[in-house]
Every structure is written in structure tokens, then in C-alpha cells.
Amino acid sequence: LADGVAVLPAPQNLSVHSANMKHLLTWSPVVVPGEIIYYSVEYQGEYEILYLSHLWIPSHWCSSTKGPQCDITDDITATVQYNLRVRATLGSQTSAWSTLEHPFNRNSTILTPPKIKVTKDGFHLVIELEDLGPQFEFYVVYWRNEPGAKEHVQVVKSGGIPVHLETMEPGARYCMKAQTFVKAIERHSAFSQAECIEVQGDAL
Amino acid sequence: GQEFRFGHCRVQGVELQKLRKAFWTVKDTVQAQDHNTSVRLLRKEILQNVSDAESCYFIRSLLKFYLKTVFKNYYNKTTELQILRSFSTLTNNFIVIISKLQPSEENEMFSIIESAHRQFLHFQGAFKQLDTDAALTKAIGEMDILLTWMEKYYQ
């Protein structure tokens, strides 16, 4: 209470979970039995922090949201530090702002190895990579599964589309693995597990 | 992936299409406020006179001016949300670009640095000849000229 007036507590435990360039801000919900609490999220990029520290910009998707989380991916549009803050609202009552303890930079996002699907179309070796969005490129490494075989590398510009890698020889076994590369943060993921496929018929 | 190559300066991690898209969403609003249509700050001859070797020095001076003077003062003129968000994208990516522009400062570069600075001073001079608000509005409105010029160096 402040001067006998109920004060809405500020949200606590702010944190950002970021994976594959999708950034989710979460916090502990403010609970008032029987009431629905709304939250507002705002952000500052490094420019605003340096030159316009008074300026906070309302989040694209969460200027008034119910859930204790907010997808801030569309707010984080540069690879710089971002401050983030949240406050709660109940009717005419508004809490104080809670600010993320440490600024968030998208270059800290977790990059997971991409899911790959290996198929053959006749003698054609085909790979389809997980569609992770326009910021992702893929490095695909493939080889013929035999001693001394040479590794081939191919850059695939986007996921979700079958890509022809090579024309296979009958009776041969081919393997491949892939990693993602994100231009905006100049980082790549670990490689996926290798997957192999075999072509029927007598080896030449 | 693509990168900026201003002379021997390399800038990765900034996608020009995102900058264009950010400006495109506010272009009409911003340019409608510019009533000095006969005046141009980023004149063709200024941009044409910047050689490849000078481009790193020129863009660094220009972006610093845009961040420290143009955007900083123009922000106070607007509370429109879409403009704030678009400018946030532009300014924060300009900060990334400037942080990666590390031109070498060897002696024989002096004439190149001086020439690039002269072209920047032409721009700044034209800016100062206008009333402040008019100059801010025009400089912001000319972002598409700047982005088009930067595209030449995006490979």
C-alpha cells in the first residue's frame, strides 16, 4: 500500500530466451485473484541508450498483452545491445517498470543444428533442410561412404525446399550433414548428425 | 552472404534490404514534410566525386553526422510509433556499420581522407544553409538517396 492506495507490484524475474533468432521475453506473472492483468513491453536499442536515453519504444506485439511473455523478435532489428522493460496494468492501476537486468544482444541466440531430410529421386541425392526463416543459410557437407572419400560442400540459401546435391552411382552409399549460418550475427550452429542413404543396383 | 565493401573497409552482419524496408515504411510521411523540393543536400556531384578508396571515410563521416545530429534532433519532432520503430532499426544498424568501419590511417592516405572529408563538408555546408527543422526533414527524407548510394558497395 502507498498512502492507503493499493499499488500494483511490478513484474519480476525478467529474462530472454533466444533460439535460432527467435527472442522471447518472459517474466513472473503479477497475480491479483479474480483479476486479469495486462502487461506493456518497451525497448531501447544502443542508439536510444546512447543518444536518447529518455526514449523507450513500445514493443511491436506487446503494448498490451495478457500472457507473462512477449515475442520481441520484430523489435530486435540490429545486432546491438537492447534494454527491455515491462509493467503491469489493472484497470487504472499501473505498476512501476521492471527492466531486464542485463541488456540483450541477439548475437547470444542459441543456434541449434538444423533438421535434415535425405531422400533420393531415382539416382538423384536430395536434401531438404529445416525452414528457419530468411536470416539462415546452410552449409551442407556430403560424401560417398567409403574409405578416402572426398567431402563436398554446398551452400544452400534457404530451408524448406528440396535441393539436388549429386547424381549417385548404383550400389553406393552417401552420407551428409549440415549446419546453419546466420549472416546478421556472423555465427554458425554445430553440425547435425550425419544421415546416409544407399542406392540399389550393382556398384560400377 | 552479402557485405558492404567501402574501399578496403568490410561490414558484415547488416542487411541492406532491412534498412530499405525500414525507411520505406515511413518514406512518404517523412518526405511529405519537406517543402524545399528544389534543394538537395546529397547532391549527385558530391556522391559521384567520392572514389572507391574514399568511400570508407566518407560514409563514416556521413553516418556519424546522421546519428549525432540528424536523427537525434529529428526524434524529438515525432511521436509516431511507426517512425520511432523504423528509425530505431536504421540508427542501430548504422551504429553496427560505424563500429565496423576501421579505415587505415597511413600517411599516404592523407589526400584520400582529405578529399572524402571535403565531400562531406559540401553536404554539411548545404545542411547548415537551411533552417534547422527544414534541414533535418530534408536530410531524413534523403535517406533513400543515401541507401541507394550505399547499395553500390553492397556485394
TrEMBL record, chain B:
<comment type="similarity">
    <text>Belongs to the IL-10 family.</text>
</comment>
<keyword id="KW-0202">Cytokine</keyword>
<dbReference type="GO" id="GO:0005125">
    <property type="term" value="F:cytokine activity"/>
</dbReference>
<protein>
    <submittedName>
        <fullName>Interleukin-24</fullName>
    </submittedName>
</protein>
<keyword id="KW-0964">Secreted</keyword>
<dbReference type="GO" id="GO:0005615">
    <property type="term" value="C:extracellular space"/>
</dbReference>
<keyword id="KW-0732">Signal</keyword>
